[in-house]
Design goal:
- 41% of the residues lie in helices and 16% in strands.
- The chain has 371 residues and is an alpha/beta fold.
- It folds into 2 domains: 129 residues, Alpha-Beta Complex (Aspartate Aminotransferase, domain 1), CATH 3.90.1150; 235 residues, 3-Layer(aba) Sandwich (Aspartate Aminotransferase, domain 2).
- The strands form 3 sheets. A 7-stranded mixed beta sheet has the order 2-8-7-6-5-3-4, with helices on both faces.
- Helix 6 links the parallel strand 5 and strand 6.
- Helix 8 runs parallel beside helix 12.
- Bound molecules: 4'-deoxy-4'-aminopyridoxal-5'-phosphate (PMP).
Protein backbone atom coordinates (compact mmCIF):
# COMPACT_ATOMS: atom_id res chain seq x y z
CA UNK A 1 0.00 0.00 0.00
CA UNK A 2 1.11 3.54 -0.72
CA UNK A 3 -0.70 5.76 1.76
CA UNK A 4 -0.91 9.40 0.70
CA UNK A 5 -3.62 10.67 3.03
CA UNK A 6 -1.50 11.54 6.04
CA UNK A 7 -3.32 14.82 6.62
CA UNK A 8 -6.39 12.70 7.43
CA UNK A 9 -4.51 10.49 9.85
CA UNK A 10 -1.16 8.75 10.28
CA UNK A 11 -0.10 5.26 11.24
CA UNK A 12 0.90 5.05 14.89
CA UNK A 13 4.58 4.49 15.70
CA UNK A 14 5.14 0.98 17.02
CA UNK A 15 6.94 2.41 20.03
CA UNK A 16 3.87 4.53 20.76
CA UNK A 17 1.69 1.40 20.61
CA UNK A 18 4.00 -0.22 23.21
CA UNK A 19 3.68 2.82 25.44
CA UNK A 20 -0.09 2.73 24.99
CA UNK A 21 -0.17 -0.96 25.99
CA UNK A 22 1.99 -0.31 29.05
CA UNK A 23 -0.32 2.42 30.35
CA UNK A 24 -3.44 0.39 29.48
CA UNK A 25 -2.40 -2.87 31.13
CA UNK A 26 0.37 -2.28 33.68
CA UNK A 27 0.41 1.37 34.70
CA UNK A 28 -3.35 1.63 34.37
CA UNK A 29 -4.04 3.59 37.58
CA UNK A 30 -6.32 6.60 37.72
CA UNK A 31 -4.06 9.68 37.92
CA UNK A 32 -6.51 11.31 40.35
CA UNK A 33 -6.24 8.52 42.94
CA UNK A 34 -4.21 9.02 46.12
CA UNK A 35 -1.76 6.09 46.26
CA UNK A 36 1.78 6.34 44.96
CA UNK A 37 1.21 4.27 41.84
CA UNK A 38 -1.50 6.72 40.77
CA UNK A 39 0.52 9.78 41.80
CA UNK A 40 3.29 8.51 39.52
CA UNK A 41 0.82 8.42 36.61
CA UNK A 42 -0.13 12.03 37.33
CA UNK A 43 3.61 12.84 37.21
CA UNK A 44 3.91 11.05 33.86
CA UNK A 45 1.10 13.22 32.50
CA UNK A 46 3.02 16.30 33.68
CA UNK A 47 6.00 15.07 31.71
CA UNK A 48 3.89 14.96 28.54
CA UNK A 49 2.61 18.49 29.23
CA UNK A 50 6.24 19.60 29.32
CA UNK A 51 7.06 17.72 26.11
CA UNK A 52 4.26 19.68 24.40
CA UNK A 53 5.36 23.01 25.91
CA UNK A 54 8.96 22.37 24.82
CA UNK A 55 7.92 21.50 21.28
CA UNK A 56 5.80 24.67 21.14
CA UNK A 57 8.56 26.72 22.72
CA UNK A 58 6.11 28.19 25.19
CA UNK A 59 5.21 28.57 28.83
CA UNK A 60 1.64 28.07 29.96
CA UNK A 61 -0.93 25.37 30.58
CA UNK A 62 -1.72 22.26 28.56
CA UNK A 63 -5.20 20.74 28.80
CA UNK A 64 -5.54 17.21 27.48
CA UNK A 65 -8.62 16.60 25.36
CA UNK A 66 -10.14 13.95 23.11
CA UNK A 67 -8.57 15.57 20.04
CA UNK A 68 -8.49 18.75 18.06
CA UNK A 69 -12.25 18.97 17.65
CA UNK A 70 -12.67 19.19 21.41
CA UNK A 71 -9.65 21.51 21.80
CA UNK A 72 -11.11 23.89 19.21
CA UNK A 73 -14.53 23.82 20.87
CA UNK A 74 -12.96 24.49 24.27
CA UNK A 75 -10.79 27.32 22.93
CA UNK A 76 -13.71 29.10 21.30
CA UNK A 77 -16.60 28.44 23.70
CA UNK A 78 -14.19 28.82 26.62
CA UNK A 79 -13.18 32.31 25.38
CA UNK A 80 -16.75 33.40 24.76
CA UNK A 81 -17.98 36.20 26.98
CA UNK A 82 -21.41 37.72 27.28
CA UNK A 83 -21.84 41.24 26.05
CA UNK A 84 -21.16 42.91 22.76
CA UNK A 85 -17.98 41.05 21.90
CA UNK A 86 -17.01 40.09 18.37
CA UNK A 87 -15.42 36.89 17.10
CA UNK A 88 -13.30 36.50 13.98
CA UNK A 89 -12.71 33.33 11.91
CA UNK A 90 -11.80 32.56 8.32
CA UNK A 91 -13.68 30.80 5.55
CA UNK A 92 -10.85 28.26 5.45
CA UNK A 93 -11.33 26.76 8.90
CA UNK A 94 -11.79 23.09 9.64
CA UNK A 95 -15.43 22.27 10.56
CA UNK A 96 -14.40 21.94 14.22
CA UNK A 97 -13.81 25.71 14.17
CA UNK A 98 -16.13 26.81 11.38
CA UNK A 99 -19.22 25.09 12.78
CA UNK A 100 -18.49 26.44 16.27
CA UNK A 101 -18.34 29.90 14.69
CA UNK A 102 -21.68 29.26 13.00
CA UNK A 103 -23.11 28.17 16.35
CA UNK A 104 -21.90 31.40 17.99
CA UNK A 105 -23.54 33.33 15.16
CA UNK A 106 -26.82 31.48 15.65
CA UNK A 107 -26.66 32.33 19.37
CA UNK A 108 -26.66 36.01 18.38
CA UNK A 109 -22.95 36.84 18.74
CA UNK A 110 -21.26 39.07 16.18
CA UNK A 111 -19.10 36.80 14.05
CA UNK A 112 -16.89 37.81 11.11
CA UNK A 113 -15.65 35.39 8.46
CA UNK A 114 -12.48 36.46 6.66
CA UNK A 115 -12.08 35.33 3.07
CA UNK A 116 -9.04 33.52 1.67
CA UNK A 117 -6.52 34.78 -0.88
CA UNK A 118 -5.75 32.81 -4.04
CA UNK A 119 -2.77 31.22 -2.29
CA UNK A 120 -5.03 29.86 0.45
CA UNK A 121 -3.82 32.20 3.21
CA UNK A 122 -6.35 34.41 4.96
CA UNK A 123 -7.02 37.86 3.55
CA UNK A 124 -4.95 39.97 5.96
CA UNK A 125 -6.42 43.28 4.74
CA UNK A 126 -9.91 42.06 5.43
CA UNK A 127 -8.74 40.85 8.84
CA UNK A 128 -7.42 44.31 9.64
CA UNK A 129 -10.67 45.90 8.47
CA UNK A 130 -12.91 43.86 10.82
CA UNK A 131 -10.80 43.97 13.99
CA UNK A 132 -11.75 46.56 16.59
CA UNK A 133 -11.68 47.09 20.35
CA UNK A 134 -14.74 44.82 20.66
CA UNK A 135 -12.90 41.82 19.18
CA UNK A 136 -12.70 39.11 21.81
CA UNK A 137 -11.16 36.28 19.78
CA UNK A 138 -9.42 35.68 16.47
CA UNK A 139 -9.39 31.99 15.59
CA UNK A 140 -7.69 30.65 12.50
CA UNK A 141 -5.45 27.82 11.43
CA UNK A 142 -1.68 27.56 11.17
CA UNK A 143 -1.52 25.23 8.12
CA UNK A 144 -4.57 24.54 5.98
CA UNK A 145 -5.56 20.87 5.94
CA UNK A 146 -7.07 21.40 2.48
CA UNK A 147 -4.34 23.37 0.68
CA UNK A 148 -1.21 23.29 2.83
CA UNK A 149 -1.18 27.11 2.90
CA UNK A 150 0.63 28.51 5.95
CA UNK A 151 -0.91 31.59 7.48
CA UNK A 152 1.50 34.37 8.39
CA UNK A 153 1.11 34.27 12.16
CA UNK A 154 3.57 37.14 12.59
CA UNK A 155 1.39 39.37 10.49
CA UNK A 156 -1.82 38.22 12.18
CA UNK A 157 -0.30 39.05 15.57
CA UNK A 158 0.95 42.41 14.28
CA UNK A 159 -2.51 43.34 13.04
CA UNK A 160 -4.02 42.16 16.32
CA UNK A 161 -1.54 44.27 18.37
CA UNK A 162 -2.43 47.30 16.26
CA UNK A 163 -6.20 46.95 16.24
CA UNK A 164 -7.18 44.98 19.35
CA UNK A 165 -4.22 44.11 21.62
CA UNK A 166 -6.53 42.57 24.21
CA UNK A 167 -8.16 40.12 21.80
CA UNK A 168 -7.20 36.47 22.19
CA UNK A 169 -5.48 34.64 19.35
CA UNK A 170 -6.40 30.96 18.92
CA UNK A 171 -4.54 28.91 16.34
CA UNK A 172 -5.60 25.47 15.13
CA UNK A 173 -2.13 23.97 14.78
CA UNK A 174 -3.18 20.45 13.83
CA UNK A 175 -1.37 20.31 10.47
CA UNK A 176 1.65 22.28 11.71
CA UNK A 177 2.55 20.74 15.05
CA UNK A 178 5.68 18.54 14.80
CA UNK A 179 5.77 19.19 11.04
CA UNK A 180 7.11 22.74 11.02
CA UNK A 181 9.72 24.36 13.19
CA UNK A 182 8.39 27.36 15.08
CA UNK A 183 8.03 28.86 18.47
CA UNK A 184 4.54 30.03 19.34
CA UNK A 185 5.77 32.72 21.71
CA UNK A 186 7.09 34.54 18.60
CA UNK A 187 3.46 35.09 17.63
CA UNK A 188 2.01 35.76 21.09
CA UNK A 189 -0.47 32.95 20.64
CA UNK A 190 -2.96 32.58 23.49
CA UNK A 191 -4.48 29.23 22.57
CA UNK A 192 -3.07 26.49 20.34
CA UNK A 193 -4.71 23.22 19.29
CA UNK A 194 -2.94 19.94 18.55
CA UNK A 195 -4.15 16.42 17.71
CA UNK A 196 -2.27 13.17 18.43
CA UNK A 197 -3.11 11.22 15.29
CA UNK A 198 -1.56 13.68 12.84
CA UNK A 199 2.01 12.96 13.95
CA UNK A 200 1.96 9.17 14.42
CA UNK A 201 0.31 9.19 17.84
CA UNK A 202 -3.10 7.75 18.68
CA UNK A 203 -6.51 8.95 17.55
CA UNK A 204 -8.95 10.43 20.05
CA UNK A 205 -6.39 12.44 21.97
CA UNK A 206 -5.15 16.00 21.69
CA UNK A 207 -4.39 19.07 23.71
CA UNK A 208 -5.07 22.75 24.03
CA UNK A 209 -2.22 25.06 24.97
CA UNK A 210 -3.38 28.03 27.04
CA UNK A 211 -1.04 30.94 27.69
CA UNK A 212 -3.07 32.53 30.43
CA UNK A 213 -5.51 30.14 32.04
CA UNK A 214 -7.66 32.95 33.45
CA UNK A 215 -8.66 33.83 29.87
CA UNK A 216 -10.52 30.54 29.57
CA UNK A 217 -13.83 29.42 31.06
CA UNK A 218 -14.77 25.87 31.83
CA UNK A 219 -17.18 24.25 29.35
CA UNK A 220 -17.28 20.66 30.69
CA UNK A 221 -18.46 20.08 34.26
CA UNK A 222 -17.61 17.09 36.40
CA UNK A 223 -14.87 15.84 38.65
CA UNK A 224 -12.52 18.74 38.02
CA UNK A 225 -9.67 16.97 36.20
CA UNK A 226 -7.31 19.04 34.05
CA UNK A 227 -7.50 21.94 36.48
CA UNK A 228 -11.28 21.90 36.13
CA UNK A 229 -11.11 22.79 32.45
CA UNK A 230 -11.80 19.30 31.17
CA UNK A 231 -13.45 16.99 33.64
CA UNK A 232 -13.31 13.25 33.04
CA UNK A 233 -10.54 10.74 33.72
CA UNK A 234 -7.67 11.45 31.37
CA UNK A 235 -7.05 9.02 28.50
CA UNK A 236 -3.69 8.13 30.03
CA UNK A 237 -2.53 5.48 27.51
CA UNK A 238 -3.27 7.79 24.58
CA UNK A 239 -1.69 10.83 26.23
CA UNK A 240 1.47 8.89 27.04
CA UNK A 241 1.63 7.46 23.50
CA UNK A 242 1.12 10.98 22.11
CA UNK A 243 4.05 12.17 24.23
CA UNK A 244 6.19 9.37 22.81
CA UNK A 245 5.20 10.29 19.25
CA UNK A 246 6.17 13.95 19.80
CA UNK A 247 9.53 12.99 21.30
CA UNK A 248 10.27 10.71 18.35
CA UNK A 249 9.18 13.09 15.60
CA UNK A 250 12.27 14.57 14.03
CA UNK A 251 10.78 17.78 12.68
CA UNK A 252 13.79 19.05 10.74
CA UNK A 253 14.85 15.76 9.20
CA UNK A 254 11.29 14.76 8.30
CA UNK A 255 10.65 18.15 6.73
CA UNK A 256 13.53 17.82 4.30
CA UNK A 257 12.61 14.18 3.53
CA UNK A 258 9.04 15.21 2.79
CA UNK A 259 10.28 18.06 0.56
CA UNK A 260 12.23 15.52 -1.53
CA UNK A 261 9.25 13.17 -1.68
CA UNK A 262 7.02 15.98 -2.85
CA UNK A 263 9.54 16.98 -5.56
CA UNK A 264 9.94 13.39 -6.78
CA UNK A 265 6.17 12.99 -6.89
CA UNK A 266 5.54 16.29 -8.67
CA UNK A 267 8.26 15.60 -11.25
CA UNK A 268 6.09 12.72 -12.47
CA UNK A 269 2.84 14.67 -12.26
CA UNK A 270 4.29 17.60 -14.23
CA UNK A 271 4.79 15.28 -17.21
CA UNK A 272 1.03 15.64 -17.81
CA UNK A 273 0.05 19.21 -18.77
CA UNK A 274 -3.63 18.73 -18.06
CA UNK A 275 -2.97 18.19 -14.35
CA UNK A 276 -2.51 21.37 -12.36
CA UNK A 277 -0.67 21.22 -9.07
CA UNK A 278 -1.68 23.32 -6.11
CA UNK A 279 1.32 23.66 -3.90
CA UNK A 280 0.68 25.23 -0.54
CA UNK A 281 3.55 26.43 1.61
CA UNK A 282 3.83 23.18 3.57
CA UNK A 283 5.49 20.33 1.66
CA UNK A 284 3.27 17.87 3.52
CA UNK A 285 0.15 18.71 1.48
CA UNK A 286 -0.26 19.05 -2.29
CA UNK A 287 -3.46 19.48 -4.28
CA UNK A 288 -3.99 18.16 -7.80
CA UNK A 289 -6.55 19.45 -10.23
CA UNK A 290 -7.28 16.64 -12.69
CA UNK A 291 -8.98 18.63 -15.44
CA UNK A 292 -12.14 17.06 -16.87
CA UNK A 293 -12.06 14.05 -14.55
CA UNK A 294 -13.85 13.52 -11.27
CA UNK A 295 -11.46 13.38 -8.29
CA UNK A 296 -13.57 10.71 -6.66
CA UNK A 297 -13.25 8.49 -9.76
CA UNK A 298 -9.46 8.84 -9.63
CA UNK A 299 -9.43 8.16 -5.89
CA UNK A 300 -11.37 4.89 -6.47
CA UNK A 301 -9.17 3.81 -9.39
CA UNK A 302 -6.05 4.48 -7.31
CA UNK A 303 -7.55 2.48 -4.47
CA UNK A 304 -7.72 -0.51 -6.83
CA UNK A 305 -3.93 -0.14 -7.21
CA UNK A 306 -3.55 0.10 -3.40
CA UNK A 307 -2.71 3.81 -3.49
CA UNK A 308 -4.78 5.86 -1.09
CA UNK A 309 -5.31 9.61 -1.59
CA UNK A 310 -7.72 12.15 -0.13
CA UNK A 311 -10.49 14.08 -1.81
CA UNK A 312 -10.69 16.66 0.96
CA UNK A 313 -10.69 16.64 4.69
CA UNK A 314 -11.59 13.08 5.77
CA UNK A 315 -13.19 14.12 9.02
CA UNK A 316 -15.52 16.52 7.29
CA UNK A 317 -18.04 16.15 4.58
CA UNK A 318 -17.00 17.03 1.06
CA UNK A 319 -18.96 20.23 1.58
CA UNK A 320 -16.25 21.56 3.90
CA UNK A 321 -13.57 20.99 1.27
CA UNK A 322 -15.81 22.73 -1.22
CA UNK A 323 -16.19 25.72 1.08
CA UNK A 324 -12.42 26.14 1.39
CA UNK A 325 -11.62 25.62 -2.30
CA UNK A 326 -14.55 27.82 -3.25
CA UNK A 327 -13.25 30.65 -1.14
CA UNK A 328 -9.84 30.55 -2.86
CA UNK A 329 -11.69 30.98 -6.14
CA UNK A 330 -12.18 27.46 -7.53
CA UNK A 331 -15.20 26.87 -9.72
CA UNK A 332 -17.39 23.79 -9.28
CA UNK A 333 -15.56 21.78 -11.96
CA UNK A 334 -12.21 22.48 -10.35
CA UNK A 335 -13.57 21.45 -6.98
CA UNK A 336 -14.93 18.20 -8.42
CA UNK A 337 -11.63 17.30 -10.07
CA UNK A 338 -9.50 17.98 -7.00
CA UNK A 339 -7.60 15.38 -4.98
CA UNK A 340 -5.35 15.90 -1.97
CA UNK A 341 -2.00 14.19 -1.54
CA UNK A 342 -0.41 14.29 1.90
CA UNK A 343 3.00 12.85 2.65
CA UNK A 344 4.83 11.24 5.54
CA UNK A 345 8.60 10.98 5.91
CA UNK A 346 8.80 7.17 5.95
CA UNK A 347 7.57 6.94 2.35
CA UNK A 348 10.35 6.15 -0.12
CA UNK A 349 11.27 8.25 -3.14
CA UNK A 350 10.44 5.24 -5.36
CA UNK A 351 6.99 5.01 -3.83
CA UNK A 352 6.41 8.73 -4.36
CA UNK A 353 7.51 8.44 -8.01
CA UNK A 354 5.44 5.30 -8.55
CA UNK A 355 2.33 7.02 -7.14
CA UNK A 356 2.94 10.06 -9.39
CA UNK A 357 3.29 7.82 -12.47
CA UNK A 358 0.17 5.85 -11.59
CA UNK A 359 -1.90 9.00 -11.14
CA UNK A 360 -0.85 10.23 -14.60
CA UNK A 361 -1.52 6.81 -16.14
CA UNK A 362 -4.96 6.44 -14.53
CA UNK A 363 -5.85 10.03 -15.32
CA UNK A 364 -5.06 9.52 -19.02
CA UNK A 365 -7.02 6.29 -19.14
CA UNK A 366 -10.10 7.93 -17.64
CA UNK A 367 -9.62 11.10 -19.70
CA UNK A 368 -9.74 9.02 -22.91
CA UNK A 369 -13.20 7.81 -21.89
CA UNK A 370 -14.67 11.11 -20.77
CA UNK A 371 -13.22 13.61 -23.26
N1 LIG B 1 -8.26 20.89 12.58
C1 LIG B 1 -7.60 20.53 11.47
C2 LIG B 1 -6.83 21.56 10.70
C3 LIG B 1 -7.61 19.21 11.03
O1 LIG B 1 -6.95 18.85 9.92
C4 LIG B 1 -8.34 18.25 11.79
C5 LIG B 1 -8.39 16.79 11.36
N2 LIG B 1 -8.74 16.62 10.00
C6 LIG B 1 -9.01 18.68 12.95
C7 LIG B 1 -8.94 20.01 13.32
C8 LIG B 1 -9.82 17.71 13.81
O2 LIG B 1 -8.94 16.85 14.47
P1 LIG B 1 -9.45 15.63 15.37
O3 LIG B 1 -9.64 14.48 14.45
O4 LIG B 1 -8.36 15.39 16.36
O5 LIG B 1 -10.71 16.06 16.06
Amino acid sequence: MIYLDNAATTKMLEGAVDVYAKYACQSFFNPSAGYNKAINIAKDLERVRNIILNKLGAKGDVIFTSGATESNNLAIFGSKRNGKWEYVFSEGEHPSVYNVAKELESQGFIVHFIGLRKDGQIDYEQLESVLNEKTRLISTMHVSNETGAINDLHLIDKIRQKKCPKALLHIDGVQAFCKLEYNITDYNIDLYTISGHKFCGPKGVGALFVKNISSLKNTVFGGGQEGGYRSGTENVPAIMAMGYAIEHYNTKENYSKVESLKEAFLAEIRKEDKIDTIEGDSPYIVGLNLKGVNGETIMRALQDEDILVGIGSACSTKKAGNRVLNSIGYNLNEIKSHIRISFIADLTIDEAKFAGKKIVEIYNRIWENVK
